[in-house]
Amino acid sequence: MRVVIVGAGEVGFSLAQKLIEENHDVIIIEQDEEKAAKADGELDAMVIRGNGARPQVLAKAGVQQGGNVDLLVGCTDRDEVNILACWIAKRTGVKRVISRVRSLEFTDTQAWAHEFGIDLMASPERSVAREIEELLFVQAASYAGELIRGQVGIYAFRVAPDSPVVNTTLSDVRKRYPKLRSIIVFIERGDEGFVPSGDSKFCEGDLCYLVCMREDLPFVESLLQPKKRRPLHRVFIVGGGKIGFQLASRLERSPNFINVRLIDMDKEKCERLAQELKKTVVLCASADDEEFLKQEGVENVDGFVCTTANDETNILIAVLGKALGAKKSIAVVRHKTYLNMDRYLPVDSLVNPNEALISMILRFVRYSEQATSLSIIDKIGAEMLEVPVSADSPTIGKPLRELNLPKGVVIAFVERNSEIFVPDGDAVLQANDTVVLFASSGLVSKALNILEG
């Protein structure tokens, strides 16, 4: 597939890297000389210098009448460049176009995408705000992602020393709690990770990635982290940008009242936020001021979230908030280098707004109609997909244990009509089922080939 990527920033560069690894023909358009030089020097891709919203520049990448471009992705930091590049590409015959947009009003409905003829308009800020909200409500989780329209989720929990499942096998836990709709898909133990079997034991300190029904989550959390389950009452948000505003807005809509305080140094921005947010207390101050945080009662905060545009600032202030007594600290980081630093720093979660966007784009490229949703878990090199089972799938009528799925692949859930369940080895797939598939990144194609024949 020939793919044109407009923008070689963090998103464009990472996306190009993944597509090149999968042997796609990638062309990058970048106006900034430093970013263009980095892409030129480190990626096996054609790099064109110029403004990706100009027809003459796009034509150099093959985006023109009679060209052979299959997909164009606009992922610069400027909405107008992304949208115009997509609009031009669609009208010159490019089959599919995807635009990153930072202005949230563009993704309130699908109307804008339809008007511009854009196949997907995605806001990473909106997606990451939803992820942070889930992490706040699920206090013990260090990772959260949703599947099957939010009815199922994948979460990462550390096994506490006082957990009742320590030194117990997965199969024994299932026997002990037969009604629990949850499955462990990956365990990170020290510097190693593995897909567990029924004989695998829970050990203190394990980081367990599990898929479970959203309504069963409180019980799962109480099993793995008995002392951390508590209601969400107070949240501090540092940074009044798009992510901070979107998060505050979501928390304001919670059925239970949450005391939200948003901190930003920009007076003009604070005045605007105070008018737009109805229940949030907006404070114009520096969040790295220890005395100010103490005066505001940071030691009684359930969630302390840093969402500024600077990764280093977010990490340092999240560490400060945690040190001052915040129950859970979350930092937004955009550079992949920082994603694993939560192992070494007193920060509960690091979230990357670009991961959700890259996941959506890669689903278009890799799976097209094969998968309705894709979550990439870079930390463990794995993916979660929702895959519909077609009427002519060779798996229909066969028990799952006879499908010969490679080790590292797990069918975690099956949705059938209005029922969602965890299948066992004797379960048999039916036409029009949707399966939630967990797989190490290198095994996804093999698993899909087995499901589709």
Quick structural overview:
With 453 residues, the protein is an alpha/beta fold.
Question: How would you characterize this protein structure?
Answer:
The protein is α/β, with parallel strands linked by helices. The chain folds into four domains: 2-122, 3-Layer(aba) Sandwich (Rossmann fold); 140-224, Alpha-Beta Plaits, CATH 3.30.70; 233-355, 3-Layer(aba) Sandwich (Rossmann fold); 381-452, Regulator of K+ conductance, C-terminal domain (Alpha-Beta Plaits), CATH 3.30.70.1450. Helix content is 31%, strand content 25%. The protein has 14 helices and 22 strands. It has helices at 10-21, 33-42, 55-60, 79-91, 111-116, 124-137, 170-176, 217-224, 242-252, 267-276, 290-295, 311-323, 353-366, 444-452, and strands at 2-6, 25-30, 46-49, 71-74, 96-100, 120-122, 141-147, 152-158, 182-189, 192-194, 207-213, 234-238, 259-264, 281-284, 303-306, 329-332, 349-351, 373-377, 382-388, 409-416, 419-421, 434-440. The chain has a six-stranded parallel beta sheet, with helices on both faces. It has a six-stranded parallel beta sheet with strand order 14-13-12-15-16-17, with helices on both faces. Helix 5 links the parallel strand 5 and strand 6 (120-122). Helix 6 packs across helix 9 and helix 6 (124-137) crosses helix 13 (353-366). The radius of gyration is 23 Å and the shape is globular. The relative contact order is 0.10. The model has no long low-confidence stretch (mean pLDDT 90).
